[in-house]
């Protein structure tokens, strides 16, 4: 760590860095930033930077407001969009109380705690997110809703299109920040894009997702368009998900891989999936945390609505992708409910905790879904034992309130704050009279 600190201090001097932004997130997953002068960095390393935690949503109770931000030198990167005018760098921070204890409501710490539990069992948790988002002409919208930048579709090549330049610039910027990109392409909706980040340990991935969202927003502004990670900005077009591929490693060995097993999936892999399925309804208020998230989950277009798994079945909640021969390291499972607006620290904590619970308790994996689950009738789905994911944020809150797994994983303070925040959002949403109601009812009733 001292070598990393020395590298950071040396780089700041050599590159003429004028500002260093210290980044962290609140419980909802909003990125927070405080800029310090280069001369303050060494002090921040040694003592942390003090601030009033009660001003950040869910971070502390008001009577224990003082907290310290400790920059993590391994996350130091120069921000490429700042250019050569006042070069600026950033580091992610861990938040502690003045006596040096991790702040219980720091989302990054929640994930670190959960990863430590996995490490106690000998596991490292790797994730690979496929992040979808929309590019719009502006953040303003008219009578017909937001206006996408193009009318292209899945994998379309649009000569001279905004999305080409946008993706190229975004990918280059991400690579400059040390974030490896695996794929980028146009998605199914007009103006919808997907950029897939390369596999990394879950803490690095969560940091990368926070950086990714910032890069995408910055590049959009630079190119005169607007990027949104809203789960379902247009009712007639697909929502934006963040399908996440996951695997557990024991040392260098993929714990999900077993040569000769069905789909080359080990017992640990099967139990992990069983844990995800059993606890999926309880974690949905975090993986899909907004009222709008449920418009995506229940709006068709390949979003999962029912709790089941399948081999290469895109209608299932958990998918076991096609196995690549002689590539045991690539054995993985994909969770398809999570959307691009989730707080990655909390969502990945709960997905890991659910899978570990399946392993610890030896959950049995139910039979796989071989049919297109959306095309089955309710009766057929019931007969096959496919329960549904929560149909609304209110429904998801009810599952979460009863969940020991979520309470234990998030810790009392984060658990209570998420519930408080989400109940308020549901109340605000429920109290509105929408254009739909006025259209349907005003003249008729």
From TrEMBL:
What does the UniProt keyword field contain? ATP-binding, Ligase, Magnesium, Metal-binding, Nucleotide-binding
Q: Ranges for the GS catalytic domain?
A: 107-445
The cofactors it requires, by name, are: Mg(2+)
- Give the superkingdom in one word: Bacteria
GO BP, sorted A to Z: glutamine biosynthetic process
InterPro entries linked: Gln_synt_N, Gln_synt_N_sf, Gln_synth/guanido_kin_cat_dom, Gln_synth_cat_dom, Gln_synth_gly_rich_site
Pfam families per record: Gln-synt_C, Gln-synt_N
Positions of the GS beta-grasp domain: 15-100
Q: Which GO terms describe its molecular function?
A: ATP binding; glutamine synthetase activity; metal ion binding
Q: Which family does it belong to?
A: Belongs to the glutamine synthetase family.
Instruction: Give the matching PANTHER family.
Output: GAMMA-GLUTAMYLPOLYAMINE SYNTHETASE GLNA2 (PTHR43785:SF11), GAMMA-GLUTAMYLPUTRESCINE SYNTHETASE (PTHR43785)
Q: How is this protein named in the record?
A: Glutamine synthetase
Species source reads Cryobacterium suzukii
Classification from the root reads: Bacteria, Bacillati, Actinomycetota, Actinomycetes, Micrococcales
């Amino acid at each position: 760590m001292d070598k990393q600190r020395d590298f950071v201090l040396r780089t700041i001097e050599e590159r003429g860095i004028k500002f260093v932004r210290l980044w962290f997130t609140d419980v909802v997953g909003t990125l927070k930033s405080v800029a310090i002068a280069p001369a303050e960095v060494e002090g921040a390393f040694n003592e942390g930077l003090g601030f009033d935690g009660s001003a950040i949503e869910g971070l502390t109770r008001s009577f224990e407001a003082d907290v310290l931000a400790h920059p993590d030198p391994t996350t130091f990167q120069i921000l490429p969009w700042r250019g050569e005018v006042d070069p600026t760098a950033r580091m992610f921070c861990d938040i502690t109380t003045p006596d040096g204890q991790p702040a219980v409501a720091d989302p990054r710490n929640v994930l670190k705690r959960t990863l430590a539990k996995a490490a106690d069992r000998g596991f490292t948790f790797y994730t690979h997110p496929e992040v979808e988002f929309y590019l719009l002409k502006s953040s303003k919208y008219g009578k017909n809703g937001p206006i996408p930048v193009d009318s292209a579709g899945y994998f379309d090549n649009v000569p001279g299109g905004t999305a080409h330049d946008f993706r190229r610039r975004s990918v280059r910027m991400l690579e400059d920040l040390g974030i490896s990109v695996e794929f980028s392409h146009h998605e199914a909706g007009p103006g919808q894009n997907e950029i897939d980040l390369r596999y990394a340990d879950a803490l690095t991935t969560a940091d990368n997702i926070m950086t990714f969202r910032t890069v995408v927003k910055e590049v959009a502004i630079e190119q005169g368009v607007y990027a949104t990670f809203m789960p379902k900005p247009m009712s007639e077009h697909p929502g934006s998900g963040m399908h996440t591929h996951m695997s557990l490693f024991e040392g260098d060995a993929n714990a999900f891989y077993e040569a000769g097993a069905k789909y080359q999936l080990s017992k640990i892999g099967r139990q992990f999936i069983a844990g995800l399925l059993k606890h999926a309804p309880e974690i949905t208020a975090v993986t899909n945390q907004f009222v709008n998230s449920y418009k995506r989950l229940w709006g068709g277009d390949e979003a999962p609505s029912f709790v089941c798994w399948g081999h290469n079945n895109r209608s299932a909640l958990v998918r076991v992708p096609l196995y690549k021969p002689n590539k045991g390291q690539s054995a993985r499972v994909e969770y398809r409910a999570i959307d691009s607006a989730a707080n990655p620290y909390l969502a990945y904590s709960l997905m890991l905790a659910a899978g570990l619970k399946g392993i610890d308790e030896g959950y049995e994996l139910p039979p796989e879904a071989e049919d297109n689950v959306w095309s089955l009738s309710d009766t057929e789905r019931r007969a096959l034992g496919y329960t549904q994911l929560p149909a609304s944020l209110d429904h998801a809150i009810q599952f979460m309130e009863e969940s020991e797994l979520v309470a234990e994983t998030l810790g009392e303070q984060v658990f209570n704050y998420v519930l408080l925040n989400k109940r308020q959002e549901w109340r605000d949403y429920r109290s509105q009279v929408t254009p739909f109601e006025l259209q349907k009812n005003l003249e008729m009733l």
